[in-house]
Design goal:
CATH class: Alpha Beta
Shape: globular
Number of strands: 7
Distance between the termini: 63 Å
Radius of gyration: 18 Å
Number of domains: 1
Strand order of the largest sheet: 3-2-1-4-5-7-6
CATH superfamily: Vaccinia Virus protein VP39
């Protein structure tokens, strides 16, 4: 007889959507606090860099996918843009509404990244921070982001990545394997969720591979830059205008 897992919402690298969503539901209340502790405050710097890369303007319509508790969405909305914070975790969205529900031009929508409930060409810009890695079909999600973006619209993806310098990469792996789990157990609400976080970062492709996926999906002007020595990478692209009809 097979034993039941200790935590049915403990996601694994199979990335079953229901289990991943359940895991994030459990950590929603302390998610931001835990992120600050685990990144030594760098998450705020990374969020600011993402906002600058999106370059939101008043009147634009922007999709913030995998928005979590809506911290990045609120930052974008304060520019005057109309921002949709989308996530597949109802617990995260509930926490986002509680914290940022009063922010003007900000709405919350539950959405599956691989089948977005939006029209073609609906957004001037789309962005996704630390969520693409949790999608079981990331290439399909990249294609969906392309579909809902208008021609000439912008993509910004911020995701954990591979530090290019071997010495720093080794230090970073040591931190993820030995230190991060202990920090998560001290300040987090579900330490097993952060075990999955470490596993998913370790198995995620490097910067050049992700840039290749974005290019293959049909985005143009694909580029990336490393933040904090490559712990995360900020990927940018543009949806091309359709070519002349033959």
């Amino acid at each position: 007889m097979t034993a039941e897992p200790k935590n049915p919402n403990r996601a694994d690298l199979g990335k079953d959507p229901a289990r991943v969503a359940g895991m994030f539901d459990e950590v929603a209340a302390r998610y931001d606090v835990t992120n600050v502790a685990m990144t030594f405050g760098n998450d705020a710097l990374w969020r600011a860099a993402t906002t600058r890369a999106v370059a939101p303007r008043p009147g634009e319509r922007i999709l913030d996918l995998a928005a979590g508790t809506g911290s990045s969405s609120a930052s974008l909305a304060r520019s005057g843009a109309d921002v949709v914070a989308a996530d597949f975790s109802p617990g995260m969205l509930a926490e986002g509404r509680r914290r940022h529900g009063s922010v003007r031009n900000l709405s919350f929508v539950q959405a599956d990244a691989t089948a977005l409930p939006f029209a073609d060409g609906e957004f001037d810009a789309v962005t996704m921070s630390y969520g693409l890695r949790n999608v079981n079909e990331p290439k399909r999600a990249i294609a969906e982001l392309l579909r809902v973006t208008r021609p000439g619209g912008r993509l910004v993806v911020n995701e954990f990545s591979t530090p290019p310098h071997p010495a720093f990469r080794g230090l970073y792996r040591f931190y993820n394997d030995r230190v991060l789990p202990r920090v998560a157990r001290l300040v987090g609400s579900n330490a097993e969720a952060y075990d999955y976080l470490n596993e998913s970062i370790r198995e995620w492709p490097d910067q050049a591979t992700l840039a290749g996926w974005i290019r293959e999906a049909g985005w143009s002007d694909v580029a990336y830059r490393n933040l904090t020595f490559g712990i995360v990478a900020l990927h940018r692209a543009v949806k091309p205008y359709p070519g002349p009809q033959s």
